[in-house]
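User: Good morning. I'm curious how adenosine-5'-[phenylalaninyl-phosphate] would be positioned relative to this chain. Could you predict the structure with it bound?
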Amino acid sequence: MKDKIKKANSLEDLQALYTETFGKNGTMTQKLKNMANLSNNERAAINAENAELRQLFKEKQNELELAVLNAKLATEKIDVTLDNEPKTRGTIHPLTQTLKEISVILEGLGYTLWTGPEIEDDWHNFTALNTPDYHPARDMQDTFFLENGNVMRTQTSAVQIRAMEKLGAPIKMFAIGATYRREMDTTHLPSFHQIEGLYIDKNINMSDLVGNLRTLLSKFFERDLELRIRPSYFPFTEPSVEFDIKWDNGKWLEMGGAGMVHPNVLRNCNIDPNEYQGFAFGFGWDRLAMLKYGLNDLRAFTDGDIRWLKNTGF
Ligand code: FA5
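Assistant: Good morning! Here's the predicted structure, ligand included:
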């Protein structure tokens, strides 16, 4: 039996041998049953054999169980060296990147972010901005009109009005968001974005405007920039200017419009123009991103072409 146990090569075989030995009619069971009339030596021999067989079974069982486990592990092995598909990461859109940079700079200069609706009423987009419906300046901005008389906001200046109506003066806010006009070429899109700034307090003047714009643009472009202002016209500012920066190639680049907020605009927002005055500025968010990141077609910003995004280096 000892040899048989040692040679068993499956748990089933071992179980059969065990039954043969220790089962109800097993050889060892019988021997143990019939020990009563045997001498002490004979009994001791049977007990020793019994213990030895049990030990042998136990050892063989452990050995066979281990073999089964190893066989199972071998088939279930995970090959951790297997090649994995490389993970592709998304990139930040140049506009989003620019938004973050501008926001950090303006917040650092004490401006608070405001938002307003993209579908705007006539009051906030035009009338309160000193542009009543008979005003010829309405033609400066080709407007998308909705059937109910609302408009797709043509300028973030509408958010100035909302902020002043709510907070009054003093106020220092900025807005950044989508704007819409009926135009389309390489430098004009029907849907583009603007950045607006407004600072109203008791002693604000044009030199504050120039200083703020120069700081903002120098920080954004990360170099000391020359700023130039030229007389211009907007119904909601008086005097009005357009401002340019001197680029690396020595050329002046037009950035946006600005000026001292017109007294009528302040009055429309229940602010007394004899007590408060201040400046506002507005410019193209898309154009800022184009310049900083050396992109040359405004239309690419909204085309959603992933190849373009990848080539922008973002
Ligand atoms: C305005 O919209 C004024 N609200 C700016 C302003 C604010 C003046 C506060 C005074 C005080 P303008 O129409 O020039 O101004 O537009 C400002 C800038 O928006 C332009 O310089 C240009 O950078 C950008 N812009 C205008 N139209 C488009 C367009 N169709 N596509 C892309 N960018 C545009």
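The mean pLDDT is 91. The first strand starts at residue 112 and ends at 114.
Let me know if you'd like a different ligand tried.
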